[in-house]
Amino acid sequence: MTRERIPIGADHAGFELKETLKAALGALGYDVEDVGTHTAASTDYADYAHPVAREVETGQAQRGVLICGTGLGMSYAANRHPHVRAAVAWSQEIAALARLHNNANILVLPARFVTAEQGVDILKTWLDTPFEGGRHERRIEKIEREEEQ
Ligand code: RB5
């Protein structure tokens, strides 16, 4: 069976948590593609959000993970890409709902507001929770049909 490849990116604020999540993803059997950053030196979140979001937009990857201080900058940049639904999750409950109701295909973690342990738990919940479909399918479709509303 082919291992799912998951692209992951972070700025300096998310660098340390990215390293932890990379190890967790590897241990869970995923292939991790680290788009950076590779040090704790100050850098710009959009430089990592766009490469990960582009992979999900084009279908090269089914899912991706992004990390910055609040999660906000990464989500703003990633959500500019068609077909991307990047959800900031700071608890397992939010992560589960982001999958069940919103079919989030990018998980964004706010590194300054979760511990490493919470980050791993949130990641696992997001990876393992399916999309509920049904009425949520229609709602998601409307996100990309804004001009028809
Ligand atoms: C970096 O200091 C911080 O602004 C960034 O990680 C993120 O929180 C932006 O949304």
Description:
The chain is built from 6 helices and 5 strands. The protein has 149 residues and is an alpha/beta fold. It has a single domain, classed as 3-Layer(aba) Sandwich (Ribose 5-phosphate Isomerase B, Chain: A), CATH 3.40.1400.10. A 5-stranded parallel beta sheet has the order 2-1-3-5-4, with helices on both faces. α1 packs across α5 (116-128). The longest helix has 13 residues, at 15-27. The protein is globular, with a radius of gyration of 14 Å. It starts with a strand and ends in a 6-residue tail after the last helix. The structure holds D-ribose. The site of D-ribose has 8 residues, from α3.
The tally of strands reads 5
**What structural class should be given to the helix and strand makeup?**
alpha/beta
- What's the assembly state of these chains? single chain
Radius of gyration: 14 Å
Range of strand content: 15-25%
Instruction: Give the termini separation.
Output: 42 Å
**Element string (H = helix, E = strand):** EHEHEHEHEHH
Strand order of the biggest β-sheet:
2-1-3-5-4
Query: What is the architecture at the second tier of CATH?
Result: 3-Layer(aba) Sandwich
Mean pLDDT value: 97
- What are the low-pLDDT stretches, counting only 5+ consecutive residues below 50? none
Main sheet properties: 5 strands, parallel
Give the overall shape. globular
Give the number of domains. Answer: 1
Which CATH class? Alpha Beta
CATH superfamily, called what? Sugar-phosphate isomerase, RpiB/LacA/LacB
